[in-house]
Write a structure and sequence with these properties.
It is a single chain. By secondary structure, this protein is of the alpha/beta class. The protein folds into 2 domains: 108 residues, Sandwich (Immunoglobulin-like), CATH 2.60.40; 223 residues, no CATH class. Strands 1, 2, 18, 19, 20 and 22 form a 6-stranded mixed sheet that branches. The chain is globular. 48% of the residues are buried.
């Protein structure tokens, strides 16, 4: 199966990650020390995101403004459009006009989009998020039960989708009210660098047509032994759980969401025909996951048939999230054929991104989460330009959470690079 192949590919991936200055620590470090220590980049940063706002939609303006402030998105990364709101679908002609303006206004360094509205969520036979990434193209659609064009970003390496793959994946800051969307944004921010201890729930339901992903669940649980607790259940729903970090299932409607507590940063979705019809679905809208407390979700906007490739692969989503990728990256990388699917949630949530904090004078703790065994290398130089040389023997990174204690004084030690695979 596709997901099993992905798990095997993951094990032999080479690491091609750029080293950058890590500038978003949620703790206070000495400013001088911060300028002298760099970490491996694991996911998108605020400067990588452009916010798209519809100035004809007051809620879009309110959401976009709040998200820019909350995530400290640079003003140059805010793109203003104006078109009639309130519709679920854009025509291909109208979208192409909007896309031309978006492309013209998007700074070259931008890697992804945050869309500050809930409707329209579709461009004829494509989702809005996929149309923004690929441009409108009917090869990403299917009139019957057929495959669609694959995504070059599926199970991809690195955190520069535009630089490396010439696409800008998008995620919608979706909800039915400003309060709901504000809560979503706040959950995403609260999740950063938290290394949550929640569970993954993979449900094989009584609806076999919508449980096509279940064939991979046992292997997924095996892959994540010692990383995430994974429960594979023969059930239609779970209830009264306070530790939901991942929830992947298949039904037209999912019961008892109001009895669950989702950990900030949680990913959750249900494989069904039209969960991505956010505001007018005859089935359960993917918005219900966000309203229940998830931080990101996914659904198809038009009948996809039950191809598992058109829905998130749990093993791939969980793997990239565990590496420290953002919710946008982990979800996008998990869908092989995303043309008909819409991604919703807080794009920059990164619960497993590395954390460096000062414990006491000249003493630091580095926390890393990893789904695989690796090596931490510490390199030192008296100049920011290098050359950098190993300061000590590489240290082993175990699967799961890792903590490393470091001694560093910028006046005597110069500059450090901490990188791992």
């Amino acid at each position: 199966m596709l997901t099993q192949i992905c798990a095997k590919r993951i094990k032999r991936f080479p690491v091609i990650l750029a080293l950058i200055l890590f500038s978003a620590f949620p703790v206070t470090l000495a400013a001088e020390a911060l300028q002298h220590i760099s970490l491996t980049r694991t996911g998108l940063m605020p400067e990588d995101i452009a916010i798209i706002i519809n100035d004809s939609d007051p809620l879009s303006q309110q959401v976009g403004s709040y998200y820019q402030r909350a995530r400290q998105i640079p003003e140059v990364n805010v793109i203003h459009l104006r078109f009639p709101p309130g519709r679920t679908t854009l025509t291909a002609t109208e979208f192409k006009q909007l896309k031309a303006k978006i492309d013209r206004l998007t700074p070259e360094h931008v890697q992804a989009f945050a869309v500050a509205w809930t409707a329209p969520y579709r461009v004829e036979c494509m989702s809005l998020t996929s149309a923004l990434a690929f441009g409108f193209d009917k090869k990403y659609c299917a009139d019957k039960c057929e495959p669609t064009a694959p995504s070059p970003y599926f199970n991809a390496l690195g955190s520069y989708p535009f630089d490396d793959y010439k696409i800008r994946p998008a995620m919608m800051l979706a909800g039915t009210s400003f309060t709901q969307i504000k809560d979503l944004i706040d959950r995403g921010i609260a999740s950063d660098h938290t290394f949550p201890k929640g569970q993954a729930y993979l449900l094989n339901t009584s609806d076999k047509a919508r449980s096509t992903r279940a064939i991979t669940f046992a292997e997924t649980a095996k892959e994540f032994t010692g990383i995430f607790p994974v429960q594979v259940l023969e059930a239609d729903f779970i209830s009264d759980r306070k530790d939901v970090l991942f929830y992947f299932t298949g039904l037209t409607h999912v019961s008892s969401l109001d009895t669950l507590e989702f950990i900030p940063g949680a990913l959750a979705d249900h494989l069904t025909s039209v969960g991505g019809m956010l505001t007018d679905s005859s089935q359960m809208s993917s918005l219900r996951w966000l309203e229940a407390g998830a931080t990101a979700s996914y659904g198809t906007v038009i009948e996809p048939c039950s191809f598992p490739q058109k829905f998130p692969s749990p093993v791939v989503a969980m793997f990239h999230y565990a590496l420290g990728a953002s919710a946008l990256e982990a979800y996008w990388k998990s869908v092989a054929w995303p043309g008909q699917g819409v991604f919703i949630g807080e794009p920059l949530a990164k619960p497993f991104a590395p954390l460096l904090r000062e414990m006491s004078t000249d003493r630091f703790e580095l926390k890393i989460f990893s789904p695989r065994v690796g090596r931490l290398k510490i390199e030192k130089s008296h100049s920011a330009a290098g050359p950098f040389k190993l300061a000590s023997r590489p240290q082993t990174i175990r699967r799961g959470e890792n903590r490393f204690l470091l001694k560093f004084n910028e006046k005597t030690d110069g500059y450090l690079k901490l990188h791992w695979n």
